[in-house]
Amino acid sequence: MDEKYLEQASALEQAHRDHALSLFRERPVAGQGRDDCKDCGEDIPCDRRKAAPGAIRCITCQKRFERTSK
User: Fold this and answer.
1) Which helix (H) or strand (E) holds 1?
2) Residues of the chain with pLDDT under 70
3) DSSP calls for 2-64
4) Which pLDDT value is given to residue 30?
5) Would you tell me how many other CB atoms lie within 10 Å of the CB of residue 55?
6) Phi, psi of 19 (to 5 degrees)
7) What is the reported pLDDT for 31?
8) How far is CA 43 from each of CA 12, 16, 26, 36, 60, rounded to the nearest angstrom?
9) Cβ-Cβ contacts under 8 Å for 42 (sequence gap 6 or more)
10) C-alpha span between 23 and 32 (Å, rounded)
């Protein structure tokens, strides 16, 4: 595979991570904690937070969001 495409993919992935983390940092602490799902308000499981740092939705809501945003 061409190294140029790998660099572009890596840069895009990093941009997505940076964006997710910036959204995470902007979330209000009062009322809805950083460990709470943006959509349903339930606690985001620790394993999900470890696997996807900056996740703002629980797995169920993330799947729903991805299905409806296509």
Assistant:
1) none
2) 1, 27-34, 70
3) -HHHHHHHHHHHHHHHHHHHHHHHHS-SSSS-TTB-TTT-PBPPHHHHHHSTT--S-HHHHHH
4) 45
5) 21
6) -65, -45
7) 47
8) 29, 23, 18, 4, 12
9) 36, 58
10) 14
